[in-house]
Amino acid sequence: LRFDEKVRVVVFKSEVKGVFCAGADLKERAKMDDAEVEHFVKRLRSLMDEIASLPVPTIAAIDGYALGGGLELALACDLRVAASSAKMGLIETTRGLLPGAGGTQRLPRCVGMGLAKELIFTGRQIDGQEAFSMGLVNHTVPQNGDGDAAYQRALALAKEILPQAPFAVRMGKLAINRGMEVDIASGMAIEGMCYAQNIPTRDRQEGMAAFREKRPPQFIGK
């Protein structure tokens, strides 16, 4: 996906009705020794980092339970859409654990430190509407009879992104992600570098031409 230039947006969904991702298999985890657990969690954290660093926009379609590592997977995505009936939570403290695949870092960056601490300290589960109200998800939708309402909304959101200039979208994602980790002056410099890479693109010229000619632009990702 990272190197396929035809990919414009990646949507993460589950094939299991009622469950986005239920997190670690604790029965499997119980059979591991301490070293194996540490190795497993390091690999999981690395996977989430790989998802977060995909160059194209990513959308999590949360149609059911997203618990523990499942919510950490959704947090590694750029955008999140949830059914109102979905259940989400970093529930690790209820099992004697703490989030280990990015949850302690990505949740506060998403909803703020106070709410993140409350959710992690209590291990509370929240539904899609509560998640929307605190900014954890971008959209919440009533569940449908097929159980894929969030996925359908995620597809609609992806289709809003698809017509836009692919390279500009990628540079926008990079500028936001890198800029959020530094002071604003450094962030402005990062934005400037990303913008400079976009200036010589054919898509930028096409966008300007389409505006002048009052027609929809035809972007090619170059």
- 3D shape: globular
CATH fold description of the largest domain: 2-enoyl-CoA Hydratase, Chain A, domain 1
CATH superfamily of the largest domain: 2-enoyl-CoA Hydratase, Chain A, domain 1
- Give the fraction of residues assigned to helices: 40-55%
Tell me the fraction of residues in β-strands, as a range: 5-15%
How would a crystallographer describe the biggest sheet? 4 strands, parallel
Overall mean pLDDT stands at 94
Q: How would you classify the helix and strand content by structural class?
A: alpha/beta
CATH class of the largest domain: Alpha Beta
Order of helices and strands: EEHHEEHEEHHEHEHHHH
- Total helices: the number is 10
GO biological process, one term: fatty acid beta-oxidation
InterPro entries: ClpP/crotonase-like_dom_sf, Enoyl-CoA_hyd/isom_CS, Enoyl-CoA_hydra/iso, Enoyl-CoA_hydra_C
Family: Belongs to the enoyl-CoA hydratase/isomerase family.
GO molecular function: enoyl-CoA hydratase activity
Spell out the blueprint of helices and strands.
Layout: E1 10-12, E2 19-21, H1 26-30, H2 34-52, E3 58-62, E4 65-67, H3 69-76, E5 79-83, E6 87-89, H4 103-111, H5 113-122, E7 126-127, H6 128-133, E8 139-141, H7 149-161, H8 166-179, H9 184-198, H10 202-212
Parallel strand pairs: 1-3, 2-4, 3-5, 4-6, 5-8
Antiparallel strand pairs: 6-7
GO biological process, one term: fatty acid beta-oxidation
InterPro entries: ClpP/crotonase-like_dom_sf (IPR029045), Enoyl-CoA_hyd/isom_CS (IPR018376), Enoyl-CoA_hydra/iso (IPR001753), Enoyl-CoA_hydra_C (IPR014748)
GO molecular function: enoyl-CoA hydratase activity
